[in-house]
Amino acid sequence: MRTVITRTGPLIALAIFLIGTAVASAALLAGPWGAAAPPPQDLLTAPDDPAMLVGERTAFRDEQGASVSLQDFRGKVVVLNFWATWCPPCVREMPSLDQLQAKLGGPAFEVVAVSTDRGAMDALRAFYDEHDIEHLDLYQDPGMAFARAVGVKGLPTTYILDHDGTVLGTHTGYADWQYPELLDWFRARIAAVPGVALR
C-alpha cells in the first residue's frame, strides 16, 4: 500500500497542477470583457493625451491600395484595431469585431481593422473569406509606420475614438466586443454625434 501511495502521490499532485494551470490559462484567454465584466469605461485604459492621437495623419492603405488616414473617419465613433493573421488572439477577436460593425456600423460608427501583415492584400482577402469576415473593410499597414506612430506595442491593440478624434480609451489584448454593456456604451457615443440619428 505504501508503494502505491508513493508512486501515485506525485502523479495526483501533477494532475492538480495541470488542471489549475489550464483553468488559469482559460481565464486569461477569456479576456477582461467576459459575462461578469464591469462597465467598459472601467476597463479601457485612459490615453495620455485624449485630445490628439499621435500619427493621425500617417497613411495606411485600403484594399484598392489607396492611402487612408484617421482624418478620413472624422465625424464617426471609431474602433481602431491593429491585428495580424499570425496573431492567435487577433484571429479569435476578428469575428467579434465583424459583428460589432454589422450591428452598429453606419454614418456615425466604424470599426477600422488595420492589418500589420507584410503579405499581399490578396492574402488578407483570403483570410476574410476563410473566417467569414463580411462587414469589415480591409486596411493594411505593411511597414507598420502607422502602428509605430500611434504607439502600438503589441497585438491586438485597440483605440476608441470619438467623432471629433478624441481618444476615449485604449485596450491591449483580446476583447469580446459583443458584451451588452459595451454595446450600450457605444450606442450612447453614437447618439452624441451631431446630426446623426441612432439607428
From TrEMBL:
<dbReference type="GO" id="GO:0015036">
    <property type="term" value="F:disulfide oxidoreductase activity"/>
</dbReference>
<dbReference type="GO" id="GO:0016853">
    <property type="term" value="F:isomerase activity"/>
</dbReference>
<dbReference type="InterPro" id="IPR050553">
    <property type="entry name" value="Thioredoxin_ResA/DsbE_sf"/>
</dbReference>
<dbReference type="InterPro" id="IPR017937">
    <property type="entry name" value="Thioredoxin_CS"/>
</dbReference>
<feature type="domain" description="Thioredoxin">
    <location>
        <begin position="45"/>
        <end position="191"/>
    </location>
</feature>
<dbReference type="GO" id="GO:0017004">
    <property type="term" value="P:cytochrome complex assembly"/>
</dbReference>
<keyword id="KW-0201">Cytochrome c-type biogenesis</keyword>
<dbReference type="InterPro" id="IPR036249">
    <property type="entry name" value="Thioredoxin-like_sf"/>
</dbReference>
<dbReference type="Pfam" id="PF08534">
    <property type="entry name" value="Redoxin"/>
</dbReference>
<protein>
    <submittedName>
        <fullName>Thiol-disulfide isomerase/thioredoxin</fullName>
    </submittedName>
</protein>
<keyword id="KW-0676">Redox-active center</keyword>
<dbReference type="GO" id="GO:0030313">
    <property type="term" value="C:cell envelope"/>
</dbReference>
<dbReference type="InterPro" id="IPR013766">
    <property type="entry name" value="Thioredoxin_domain"/>
</dbReference>
<keyword id="KW-0413">Isomerase</keyword>
<dbReference type="InterPro" id="IPR013740">
    <property type="entry name" value="Redoxin"/>
</dbReference>
